[in-house]
Amino acid sequence: MKVILAGFNVDLDALKEYKKKDIVLTPESISAAYARISRSPKPVDSLRQESCEEVAKARRSNRTIIFEMGHHSVAEHAVFNFDIIGISRTAIEELEKFRLCSYTEKSQRYVTLKGDFVVPEELANPNLIDDYYDIIKVQNDYYKYLYKKISVRNLRRSSGKAVSKRQEKILRNLAKEDARYILSMATQTQVGATINARNLELMIRRFASHNSKEINELGKKLYTLVHKIAPSIILFHKANDYDQKTYPELQGYARRYEVTKIRSSEQRGRGDVKLVDHTPDGDAKILTALLFRVTNQSYEQALRFVRKMSKKKKVALFKKSCERMELYDVLLREFEFTNLTFSLIVSAGCFGQLKRHRIASLTCQGYEPELGLTIPESVIQVGEEKEFIRIAKKSEALYKKIGKKHPGVGTYILTNAHRKRVLLRINLRELYHISRLREDPTAQWDIRDKANKMSALANKVMSITASLLGGKSDYPKIYRAVYGKNPKITEVPSL
Fold first, then answer.
1. What does the angle CA 418 – CA 423 – CA 427 come to, to the nearest 5 degrees?
2. Residue pair 107/374 in contact by the 8 Å Cβ criterion
3. Are strands 79-88 and 188-196 parallel, antiparallel or unpaired?
4. Could you report the per-residue pLDDT of 26-79, keeping only the tens digit for each?
5. What pTM, to 2 d.p., does this model score?
6. Cα-only R_g, the chain
7. What's the pLDDT band for 266 if we cut at 50, 70, 90?
8. What are phi and psi of 241, to 5 degrees?
9. Rounded mean pLDDT of 324-349?
10. What is the mean pLDDT of the chain?
11. Residues 8/79, Cβ–Cβ less than 8 Å
């Protein structure tokens, strides 16, 4: 694993004077200056100048304001950029749990993989390591074989038609995204991450408390890189009892009540998307929030008014709120006043995309072989289903073998086809975002399937306010169905 500090935000005036004076470049000067805005009559640019010229004083100020006075938001003004290279897909899931950060990850859909993988440090036993290498090699070799076979199948389906280089690239990428389902969670990836200091401190502390040595190593590398540059805003970085012990103790408490039997219908993939909870009378709650925003009524008055409205008038109110919305627009914030909670069973391949939707409440269990496999349709069509399952089952056998000696470490050897349960709570505004992006034909088929089902369930309980859900390519058609006319479409501005 390699972690590089690619950049951090610095005061522009300090940067201009950097070569002329003995100036320390650190994001702490900005956070310290902004922290003083609320208590100083001086202009902001003067506060920044003082912080740049007196870094030691700025650092003491940060320490006092952030950690003694409790104004932790000040640390959000310091921002770091990291190149994280050679990390496993298993570890990436832990990294990207921190939702108020920004990540851009190497895509297995578009990059042809070369077989690089991570060997967890916990596997000290030579027998386990030998088995581990053997399974990884089988998976990687089969990935290459599947990629070629599915590529040929995709190109043959276009026979009789001239295929441009762009179309050929698309067809080969489709083969990559299906072949990757046999790859392990140990497969190496890389990510560019942008993290403010407040979230970075929490991340480093959680990583220090984690039971994975790869995650421990990542946390240490992050801390080492930022500590010398910004010592005043990354303080509580060590492991603590809360992060180390809370979930294990909850697990122990729940063990005597644990339900271990999994229904066969779940194993076969039925019921993989369920709406388990939602805001009652969601349409009315959103329409009430809209009226609350534009009138002087109390919430209770607006709600009574909405409940007396006919359905026709409710639809008219909803349509008025979205009539001028173009494809790039987001819904009004009032659409956040209803929530939907979905219980999902997703493959590792699907979860890699689902976790990107960070403005949501998402909690998940570990991967569970008993939940079965998500096998791409193309694998079945090229006659490789049995071999795919054989390799996956061989991976599961080693997963169990590793798990007996090193609980949790066996996940590295499971594939992108293996599944886990996820609980996802989102407001309707965020579901619209997911729907636009993931129900589009350009979206990957696995998460597109889940998004389609979530939208259909939302429509059943919010038939008015969810009526514009759908992928971006279908937006004009959906809009016409609701409004009886075409939406306005602004052309992309030229550069």
1. 130
2. no
3. antiparallel
4. 888 878 877 777 677 888 888 778 777 777 777 777 777 766 666 677 788 889
5. 0.89
6. 26
7. very low
8. -65, -35
9. 94
10. 89
11. yes
- Per-residue model confidence (pLDDT) at position 454: 98
Which candidate, 417, 395, 488, places its Cα nearest to that of 177? 417
Sign of CA dihedral 120, 121, 126, 127: negative
Q: Which amino acid is at 363?
A: T
Q: Which residues of 259-277 are buried (b: 16+ CB within 10 A; e: fewer)?
A: eeeeeeebeebeebbebee
Q: Are 447 and 438 in contact (CB under 8 A)?
A: yes
Closest C-alpha among 239, 251, 256 to residue 202:
239
Provide the 3-class DSSP secondary structure of residue 347.
Answer: strand
pLDDT in tens, 448-461: 999 999 999 999 99
CB neighbour class for 127 (10 Å; exposed up to 12, middle 13-18, buried from 19): exposed
- Token pair of 348, please? 């590792």
Is residue 91 scored above 80 in pLDDT? Answer: yes
Scanning 63-211, the segments in alpha helix (DSSP H) are 89-95, 126-156, 165-179, 197-209
Q: Report whether pLDDT(248) > 80.
A: yes
Interaxial angle between packed helices 126-156 and 385-405, expressed in degrees from 0 to 180 and rounded to the nearest 10: 160
Task: Report the half-sphere exposure of 441 (CA within 13 A, side-chain side).
Answer: 4
pLDDT value of residue 115 = 85
352 Cβ partners below 8 Å, 6+ apart?
89, 92, 93, 108, 416
Using the 8-state DSSP alphabet, how is residue 394 labeled?
A: H
Nearest-CA neighbor of 223 among 211, 241, 238, 212? 238
- What amino acid occupies position 91? A
Tokens for 197? 């200091």
Length in residues, the chain: 495
Whole-Å CA distances, 9 to 24, 29, 53, 80, 195 = 13, 10, 17, 7, 11
Give CA–CA dist 28/270, Å, rounded: 52
Which residues share a beta bridge with 347? 419
Is residue 116 within 8 Å of 188, Cβ to Cβ? yes
Q: Identify which of 294, 289, 203, 283 has the alpha carbon closest to the alpha carbon of residue 3.
A: 203
